[in-house]
What does this fold into?
Amino acid sequence: MKRTTQVLTSVVIILIFFSCKREEVNTFNSQITSQELLNKTEAFSSETVDLYKINYKSNGLNIEGFIAKPEQHNTNTKLPAIIFCRGGNKDFRAITENSYKYFNFLASQGYVVLASQLRGNKPSEGIDEFGGNDVNDILKLISIAKELNFVEAKNIHILGYSRGGMNAYQVSKLTDDINSIAVVGAPTNLFKGAKFRNEMYHKVMKPLIGDSIQFREEYIKRSSVFWHDKINEPILILHGSNDSKVVVDEAQQIIDSLIVSNKQDFKFKIFEGGNHGLSNYNQERNDLIFNWFKTHNK
It folds into this structure.
């Protein structure tokens, strides 16, 4: 009886081992530690797009992310990718069920969409540095995208809203593995932003970066207007004149800098009365973004 129990226990352990191993193998590639299909849940239901919640490692931290891909991925066709850079900080504006619809929309246009929660919130480990080492979480997504067998590695684009736009500028400086960038309501000069929104400075910038005098260089690292000549990719800049979060002067400042430096491949539009995310110009905003990406596919 004892031997029978030992044999059964061994069988259970072996089954558990192979079950866990099989789950590991079934992730899209080795850089993804786990993935979960979210389709047909209360949070997300789509007949045309598969949405996965994933976990991956960045600087040894466990980071939550997402991959959305059209049904077309079931064929041998490889698709261009959009790396979506979220706005906000820590848990504020983290990716939630409300974001899934936008991922679905982006993917429905024929793109594989990858997004990161970034470090420093409930789903992910680490500390949010608001444009510090958290940029590595986005760079890791690009690395993952390049290895996915349903992504066309030569066609990877970056889309950033608000803080995500700031991160998109930073990514441009750090990698040549992307085709083009589109930003909406993006900060380009944190010194100007701190004066425009004093509350933002005291509640977000100062706690996450440090004060702007002692840590001046850290603010410069996050302010693309100071290193606009390092932005090598084609870039689309969209901003609203009534942006209450990031003053339109920040967009105008980077636009003027790119013009003076004779940047060859960039386009911009300031939307009269446009809000922070240009939700009052949804259609035009979306058309400009998709046309930009399509134009810069190889």
Q: What stands out?
A: The chain has one domain: 29-295. Residues 87 and 163 are 5 Å apart (CA to CA). The domain at 29-295 is CATH 3.40.50.1820 (Rossmann fold).
